[in-house]
């Protein structure tokens, strides 16, 4: 029986649960550190983790998604976040986005956002992956809403959220740095909603 267990592990048959996700994150940090983003492959990361390569797409959607959580350490799963945000009226999308992002970043701690900023500033590939994340994330939302000028709207939404994070967690402007979340949602969400569905001319 022990031999069968060893064979199963060698064939990448780790159960597809939370332990698989954790193993992939740990393997990804090691492989990205050794080989960089371009040199790291999904197959090598999966082999290092002892799982099937299909588990990368299952848990993270892509190599970029895995990089985002393993290296950038975004405090959310992009696919779960998208599903959560699309659950509600279209005219309240802005409120859901601002509230969710603030809640997740507050829960992770401001130092996590500061680390993200350092990663993006000092690592070209990190900046590329972060841009890819925002582009994919907002493109899906905006296209689903049927809005025009998707690329511009995506950039505007990203600028609002990144700027919000910089002011709250890095520069720590008061009173925004210590404000409760709901007053910020009330103030910022209408702008995000306009970027999503309103007139931007």
What topology does this entry show?
Blueprint: H1 2-10, H2 18-39, H3 42-49, H4 54-60, H5 63-70, H6 78-85, H7 93-108, H8 110-122, H9 124-145, H10 150-170, H11 181-197
Helix pairs in contact: 2-3, 2-5, 4-5, 5-9, 7-11, 8-9, 8-10, 9-10, 10-11
Describe, in plain words, how this protein is organized in 3D.
By secondary structure, the chain is mainly α. It folds into two domains: 14-71, Arc Repressor Mutant, subunit A; 76-200, Tetracycline Repressor, domain 2, CATH 1.10.357. Helix content is 75%, strand content 0%. It has eleven helices and no strands. Helix 8 (110-122) packs across helix 10 and helix 10 (150-170) packs antiparallel against helix 11 (181-197). The longest helix has 22 residues, at 18-39. The chain is globular. It comes from Amycolatopsis coloradensis.
- Terminus-to-terminus distance: 68 Å
As for the CATH topology of the largest domain, it is Tetracycline Repressor, domain 2
Tell me the domain tally. Answer: 2
The assigned CATH architecture of the largest domain is Orthogonal Bundle
Q: Helix-strand pattern, N to C? A: HHHHHHHHHHH
Contiguous low-pLDDT stretches (5 residues minimum) are 1-15
Major sheet details: none
Task: Work out the helix count.
Answer: 11
Structural class comes to mainly alpha
Could you name the CATH homologous superfamily of the largest domain? Tetracycline Repressor, domain 2
Give the rounded overall mean pLDDT.
Answer: 84
Shape: globular
Radius of gyration: 19 Å
Total number of β-strand segments?
A: 0
Highest-level CATH class of the largest domain: Mainly Alpha
What is the helical fraction, as a range of percent? over 70%
Strand content: under 5%
């Amino acid at each position: 029986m022990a031999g069968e267990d060893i064979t199963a592990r060698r064939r990448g048959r780790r159960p597809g649960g939370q332990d698989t996700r954790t193993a992939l994150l740990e393997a990804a940090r090691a492989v990205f550190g050794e080989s960089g983003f371009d040199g790291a492959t999904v197959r090598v990361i999966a082999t290092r983790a002892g799982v099937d390569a299909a588990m990368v797409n299952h848990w993270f959607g892509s190599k970029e998604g895995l990089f985002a959580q393993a290296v950038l350490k975004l405090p959310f799963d992009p696919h779960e976040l998208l599903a959560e945000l699309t659950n509600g009226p279209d005219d309240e999308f802005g409120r859901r986005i601002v509230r969710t992002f603030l809640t997740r970043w507050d829960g992770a701690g401001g130092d996590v956002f500061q680390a993200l900023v350092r990663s993006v500033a000092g690592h070209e590939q990190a900046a590329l992956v972060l841009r890819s994340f925002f582009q994919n994330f907002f493109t899906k939302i905006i296209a689903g809403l049927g809005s025009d000028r998707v690329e511009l709207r995506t950039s505007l939404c990203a600028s609002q959220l990144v700027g919000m994070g910089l002011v709250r967690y890095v520069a720590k402007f008061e009173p925004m740095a210590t404000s409760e979340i709901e007053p910020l949602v009330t103030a910022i969400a209408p702008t995000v909603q306009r970027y999503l569905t309103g007139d931007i001319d």
